[in-house]
Design brief:
The structure holds two protein chains of two kinds. Chain A is mainly alpha-helical. Chain A is built from nine helices and no strands. Chain B folds into two domains: about 170 residues, Rossmann fold (3-Layer(aba) Sandwich), CATH 3.40.50; about 70 residues, no CATH class. Helices cover about 40% and strands about 25% of the residues of chain B. The two termini of chain B are about 35 Å apart. The chains are: A mainly alpha, B alpha/beta.
Chain lengths: ~260, ~270
């Protein structure tokens, strides 16, 4: 019993380290193709990047708008109710501004994109793997990393910060609308106060986080997709696994990030 | 070792190839050569290692030991860039076609040209239409792979495989999943391509009818060993019991090794 348990733990650890190593080499290889692709006569094609940007970023705008606006309002409701016990309702602007830009925007965008695009990537790559499309790419002389991973990685690295910044604006608007209704604060007054308390560093903290999340989502989705070997059930498992792992890593990375930045 | 007489002509040379899947040994010391312009059929039952042999010939895996020379270049030693270069003169038709599902048939066929040549769009379109008409799929370029039948998918995959006019062409189970008529059409197509382009062709299959129709020579694999390489006549007349059971569709006689059986039961390999 104890032996099998230790054995299992050992195997899991080895697998984990192996996967981390694989992730680093995948990241290195996709950056290699971006920078040195023309030496190998395999450049990363801009249309591939743009189509990924559309899917990951632009098509997510409606849902991002709804989520961010709702979160902004939720924070205002919660903040005003809590601060009212101290009679400090007007401080709600500070609370909303900081929590939105530092935490909520990057986290919500990270989780949304992991669920929306990470799952799509893992399912697509997994299906390609079992249909031998990945092998077909290789025998045609096209690197699957250059053709599939690099465009997605670039698109994620561009679109996550953009979505995060957009979510900042919409969530602040949501907060302003509720504060206006509850406290009678006018929109310009709210905006003035927000600009007063908000620093560039606060927004940048969210942007940096979103860049890390972009790398996490891309690598986790592709590794799970490439590892599919057992039919359609394998694709389903890989998709689930990549979403769950992405979100877990995102939340852990977020916590670590916040810890180091507030020290 | 290949004999001296065929050495100049051989475009595919496999020497002492040993491969493992995990800890299991799949191929034992495989030696074979394929001459230029020849159709070599690799035949064997399931689990014989024939598909594995093909995957190693394509350079998809690194063997445990041994050499594989394609067009006088050892693919086990080549740098990635040189291997990519060599792959321009290879075409592969996979078992399920392996067409890219997100691209139309036309785009699938164009892809190797787009990636490897600097031809202008017009020329690329003309060349891909030409190859599609070779496989009798003219006019289908705007359809998606999901809209085609199994036989059409295989032919479209063949068009993609020959679009760069390869010197070496590989087929994995060309007749699998096809009705007898579609399978026979594909066989004719394989023969026509060889005659027209003088392509060297390697076909992995377990389909006997197709093997006897197209093969110049046959390599028979059984449990990771080559048990015979010969012409159609030689293989037909072989008195090797394994080959005879393969040809006569007899079920395999399992020789039971008492010790090995016991070990497999107790899980101690």
């Amino acid at each position: 019993m104890l032996r099998t348990l230790t054995e299992k733990l050992g195997k899991t650890t080895v697998c984990g380290v192996e996967e981390l190593g694989y992730a680093s080499s995948l990241l290195a290889e996709s950056l290699y193709w971006l920078i040195f692709g023309h030496h190998r006569n395999q450049v990363v094609k801009p249309p591939a990047v743009f189509s990924q940007m559309m899917q990951i970023g632009i098509h997510a705008l409606p849902i991002v708008t709804i989520l961010a606006f709702t979160i902004g309002m939720m924070l205002a409701i919660q903040g005003i109710a809590t601060l009212r016990t101290f009679g400090a309702e007007s401080q709600v602007v500070l609370g909303i501004a900081l929590s939105v830009t530092r935490e909520f925007s990057p986290l919500i965008i990270g989780i949304l994109v992991a669920g929306r695009s990470g799952s799509a990537l893992a399912a697509r790559i997994g299906t390609m793997q079992i249909a031998q499309e990945i092998d077909a790419l290789r025998v045609i002389g096209i690197s699957p990393v250059r053709y599939l991973v690099t465009p997605s990685l670039i698109a994620m690295l561009v679109m996550l910060p953009v979505l995060t910044f957009y979510a900042d604006l919409v969530a602040l608007l949501g907060g302003a609308v509720y504060s206006g209704l509850d406290l009678g604060m006018s929109l310009p007054a709210y905006a003035d106060r927000t600009l007063e308390v908000l620093e560039v560093d606060d927004i940048m903290q969210g942007i940096w986080k979103s860049l890390v999340f972009a790398i996490i989502i891309t690598l986790v989705s592709f590794i799970n997709g490439f590892n599919v070997s057992a039919g359609s059930e394998g694709v389903g498992k890989a998709t689930t696994r990549s979403v769950v792992l992405s979100i877990t890593y995102i939340i852990i990375a977020d916590m670590l990030f916040t810890f180091f930045l507030s020290h | 070792m290949p004999i001296a007489a065929t050495q100049n002509d051989a475009v595919i040379e496999v020497e002492n190839l040993v491969t493992h899947y995990g800890t299991r040994r799949i191929l034992n010391n495989v030696d074979m050569t394929v001459d230029a312009g020849e159709i070599m059929v690799i035949m064997g039952g399931s689990g014989s290692g024939k598909s594995t042999l093909l995957r190693y010939m394509l350079g998809l895996h690194q063997p445990t030991s041994g050499n594989i020379r394609l067009l006088d270049q050892d693919i086990t030693q080549l740098k990635p860039k040189q291997l990519d270069e060599l792959r321009k003169s290879m075409g592969v038709s996979f078992q399920g076609g392996a067409l890219f599902n997100s691209l139309t048939i036309g785009e699938n066929v164009c892809l190797p040209l787009r990636e490897h040549t600097k031809l202008d769009e017009n020329t690329i379109q003309i060349m891909s239409r030409m190859k599609l008409s070779v496989v009798n799929l003219a006019g289908f370029e705007d359809l998606m792979p999901a809209q085609l039948s199994g036989g059409m998918i295989k032919r479209a995959a063949l068009a993609r495989a020959i679009v760069m006019d390869p010197k070496l062409l590989f087929f994995d189970e060309p007749s699998a999943g096809l009705d007898p008529v579609a399978a026979a059409e594909l066989d004719d197509l394989i023969l026509r391509i060889r005659d027209a382009l003088n392509t060297t062709i390697v076909v992995v299959t377990h389909d006997l009818d197709s093997t006897f129709r197209i093969a110049d020579r046959i390599t028979v694999l059984d449990q990771g060993d080559i048990i015979m390489i010969g012409t159609v006549e030689e293989v037909r007349n072989s008195d090797n019991p394994r080959i005879q059971s393969l040809l006569n569709r007899e079920s395999r006689e399992v020789d039971i090794d008492a010790d090995a059986y016991l070990r497999s039961l107790t899980g101690q390999e």
